[in-house]
Each structure stands twice: as C-alpha cells, then as structure tokens.
Design a protein that fits this description.
single chain; about 350 residues; alpha/beta; 10 strands; about 20% strand; globular
C-alpha cells in the first residue's frame, strides 16, 4: 500500500537526540506513513540506532551513505519516497503527535498542494525561546507568487508572519516534486538550500495554505550557541542574494522583495562579523579586527548599508549598524565579542 506521507530525516552524529525525533514520528496519529532515515556518514552511534529502529518498525527505511551534507541527504530520501505527500524533519528536532494528520487534512479539504505550519524554538532545557506567528489563511493563483513566497526572500522587519518557516515546517505533493525533478542544492554551495527548494516548488503550485498551530519543535543543542567557523560565509551570502534577485525577476516581484533581500545581507553580515570575532581566542586582536574591517569595507556592504532602512531594527542592531557605518571597528569587535559570550 502506498503510504500517505514520506517523512525524510537526514541523520548525522545525533545519537543523543535521534530516538526522540523518530519516536515523535512513529507516534503520529497519521499511521499511513514511511520514515526514511538517511545516515549521512555519521561517526557516532547514529547509524546503528537507525538500523535498530528499522528492525522494530517496518515503516522505517534506512540509507547509509558518505557524508555530503543535509541537502544531498534529503535528495536521496526523495529518490526513495513513495508517499502521496513529502515532508522533512531534522534529526535533533521533533513534532507534536497530531502534526501530519492535522496539516494533511487541511491540505485535502482545501485542495492545496503545499501547507506551512507553526513552530517553536526550544533551548537545550526545553524552554520555548520563540514561537512563530503565522496567520491561518490560503493563497491561490497569483497570491502564491505575490504574497506567500515573499518570506522566502528574507524577513520583513515590520511583519514576522511566516518568519523562519522552512522545508521542515511544510508538507509537499510528491507528484509535483517528482514531475518537475525539484531537488535541494548542497548547503556547502548555497547559503540556504531550503529557500531555493521552496522557490522552485512554488513555480508549479496553484494553492498554498498555512496553519498557525505550533507543531514543530526546532531544538537548539548545547553547542548551537557556539557554532564553528564557516569559511566563506559572506561570499556564500552574496551568491545567495544574487540567486534571490534572479528568482524575484522570474516571479515579477523585485520591488516587493528588495528590502527583504537587504535584510538577508544585514543578518548575514552581523553573523559573519561575529564568527570572525569568535577566532579571537586563536588569533591576535589585530588580525581579527583586520578581517572584520575587510568585510565591512567591501563595495557590496557599503552599498547596501547606505540603502538599509533601519526603522525596523531593534536597538542592538542599530548599534551594530552605527558601528559599521561610522567605521568604529574597535567598538564593533567588542560588541560582537560580548554577544558571542552571551550566546546571542
């Protein structure tokens, strides 16, 4: 029997959290599903846990492969998927037990080809740090392209509807994915593979619905606050925003999303500066400051800083902005260091 839903789970070195994730899928009130675990070259016990879970539940399928990243792992899952619908979940997160029955029911009642739903961001102790704010509504025809997809181009500082919603908080039609050969790019080559996947998918849909319920738990791990150095982060961002502008031209909404794309640049600029400052324990202050200065004085940075509308920024972001605009690099390094120490 064809399962109603395929849940694709990339797995990489998450032995501490994997069972919680899979159990939350196994206990779904929607029973007609398959669970596809892609062990992406894990070096801990994750692969063996996957195999043991598959022995205990015939709905679970396991693929073991070399490490290539989350995007490629998801593609492997798409090749195997048999469900009418497809969704994704990160292996250190989990979902409420009525998630998929609830959202698929909404899709079918409203004859939609995609649904996006709410989530919470939880700290390592399970405390809720953030709850998405999603309006319950439907988008049809031109509304999909002129309204729904806007959030994929970046945040609106004045409106956080659909902020942060990604492939894990969405359910898709497998037929549309298969027919149009929609796949994820590697996150090692593009800044946000989720965004590009969704912008491709929305080319082929006529109706999307949204659900305000907080059904997905995006869980920060103990080391989430101290992520490692990502070489070339700023260059990946510039490439990503170029892709966003190309999609904006395709969808004919360039004017609607130009401020959102600037916000993508802005948020990534802050993160790029902060990650350079994280190296201060291994390198000299002078070297760190020089790299921060080199980023902030790039032509692209100077251009969008002059165009950025700061009214929607909070006070801390405005202070970052002032430091960059006025070239107060000592202040910028100190501010970034303090934020890093607080895990912010």
């Amino acid at each position: 029997m064809e399962p109603k839903l395929s849940v694709i789970v990339p797995v990489y070195n998450v032995e501490e959290y994997l069972k919680r994730c899979i159990e939350s899928i196994q206990k779904q009130t929607l029973h007609e599903l398959e669970i596809i675990l892609i062990n992406d070259g894990s070096t801990d016990e994750s692969g063996r846990i996957c195999d043991k879970l598959a022995e205990e539940d015939s709905r679970i399928k396991v693929i073991h492969k070399k490490n290539e990243g989350q995007g490629i792992a998801r593609n492997c899952g798409l090749e195997m998927a048999q469900g009418k619908y497809v969704t994704f979940i990160d292996s250190d997160d989990y979902v409420e037990k009525n998630t998929y029955e609830s959202v698929i029911s909404k899709m079918e009642i409203q004859k939609a080809e995609m649904i996006s739903f709410g989530y919470t961001q939880d700290d390592p102790q399970g405390k809720i740090l953030y709850q998405s704010r999603i309006r319950e509504r439907s988008y049809q025809g031109d509304e999909v392209r002129k309204k729904f997809i806007l959030h994929f181009f970046g945040d609106d500082p004045y409106d956080d509807d659909l902020r942060g919603v990604s492939a894990c908080m969405s359910v898709y039609s497998r037929e549309i994915i298969h027919k149009n050969q929609i796949r994820f790019l590697s996150e090692r080559k593009v800044f946000s593979e989720d965004t590009i996947f969704n912008l491709e998918y929305c080319k082929y849909v006529d109706k999307v619905v949204t659900c305000q319920q907080h059904l997905y738990h995006y869980c920060l791990k103990a080391d989430s606050f101290t992520k490692g150095y990502q070489k070339g982060r700023w260059e990946l961002t510039l490439h990503f925003t170029k892709l966003l502008k190309e999609y904006a031209q395709y969808y004919g909404n360039s004017e609607l999303v130009e401020d959102r794309i600037r916000m993508v640049l802005w948020v990534s600029l802050i993160d790029s500066v902060k990650q350079e400052v994280k190296m201060i324990e291994k390198q000299s202050y002078g070297d760190v400051k020089a790299r921060v200065k080199a980023i902030c004085e790039q032509k692209e940075v100077c251009t969008f800083i002059n165009e950025l509308k700061i009214r929607g920024l909070n006070n801390k972001q405005k202070l970052f902005y002032q430091c960059i605009k006025c070239k107060w690099y000592n202040c910028l390094v100190i501010l970034s260091y303090l934020r890093n120490q607080r895990g912010l």
